[in-house]
Amino acid sequence: MIRSKGFVALVGAGPGDAGLITLRGRDLLAAADCVVYDRLVGDGVLAMMPPEAVKINVGKTGGGNFVPQDEINEILVREAEKGQMVVRLKGGDPFLFGRAGEEIEALNAKGIPFEVVPGVTSALGGLACAGIPVTHRVDARSLHIITAHTKEGGLARLDYEALARLGGTLIFMMGASAVREICSELIKAGMPSETPAAAVESASTAAQRLFTGTLGTLASLCEKGGLHSPALITVGKTTAFAASFAWKKFLPLSGRKIIVTRPRERAGKLSAMLRARGAEVVEAPCIATRRIKADLPDLSKYGWLGFTSVTGVEAFFALLAENGRDIRSAGAAKIAAIGPATAAALKERGLLTDYMPEVYDGAHLACGLADLVKEKPLMMLRAKEGSPELTEELAARYVKFTELPVYETYFERPEVIPQGADAAVFTSASTVRGFKAAMPGLEVPCACCIGVQTAEEAKRAGFKNIVTAKKATLESLTEALEEIYHDNTPEKTEKE
Length: 496
Description:
By secondary structure, the protein is an alpha/beta fold.
């Protein structure tokens, strides 16, 4: 979206989980021409970046290389002066230790308009994901958020005696390497060593870990458990509520990172179902589709019209419109659909399905139609390179049929190559092939497949642990993942 004058949106991405970015932030990200992003932005949020947008990683790694803030300011100004819609994507909230103020000063100096979109800060949202309330009517009437590091990267020089007198809840951000100093200095300043304290690592993501103890024990626990950034350190009575307020234990896919490989426009429903069960979802579309323009034959010559996907339904109706026709041109032809989703797409367009197999795949669709197709032949409206089992089964049973490709599938490289995933979900054989083409070196412990044909493709692709849904539906696919991880939630809590 090129503008005569550029615009910069400073967007808070939240603590990591893609479900915690605001609606306004999501909408601006979808409209971005350029995205300038930090290391702490979650994979699921990064996956929302538009494919055509310019992506600039300015992420800072604790103790490692980073892009200096002055250079980040220059990047924002430079990209905005090109007339672009620039999203400055920041972990957490832009105005809480996000240095958004310095970036705004640079934009103001050049007369560049901007907008600030608040984000869910990890200081509040991250602790909430670990079951730690920052206030409580009895135990904490105030909270205090402190950065454990200076802008130059060293440990902050803090007045620990003043902090010890504050009461309430103390929250130290960017504190992974400062746990021992924080605890020892607060004890020296007069806080009892028995004061509850905790560390939360990678809050809100599947990698979240919780270390609970006291000021006297937390440092040793974190060192033993290998705490690493990003981490929050919290001190105060409310920390003790973590054991009873840990709500994620009720969600069957909590602590699991799942890759969804469906086409970008199809991923939303499945992703929502998985997130509702506690999973961290990264949408990594490995295939995309495009319609094929063609001249439609005389549809009244066919006794059946068969559809193998929602995309096929959409492409067919678009083709009708392009040819100046509507569904009446099909005359009395009956309708066959491979499964419930395809049948639902047809129903939305005023067509009821006359036949749908009990097992939702091409082979069973062909077997059922073999007994139904009589005088008039069958027209299959499908992908250019669809499942060969359907064609082979129809031919083997001497069914009179014609195939009309109405769309084609091609491989797409995802915006994010997700690391550390527990499973990848595949809804077709083509998503398996696309996954291997786009991410050939990525190892995933489990391939969860929607049907037998998809599972066979996963086996050919080299996956060792393959799980197949009982039915070829998104609901059954989600249930298959739940069964894998039932009573097998990873233990990610360290306590004394």
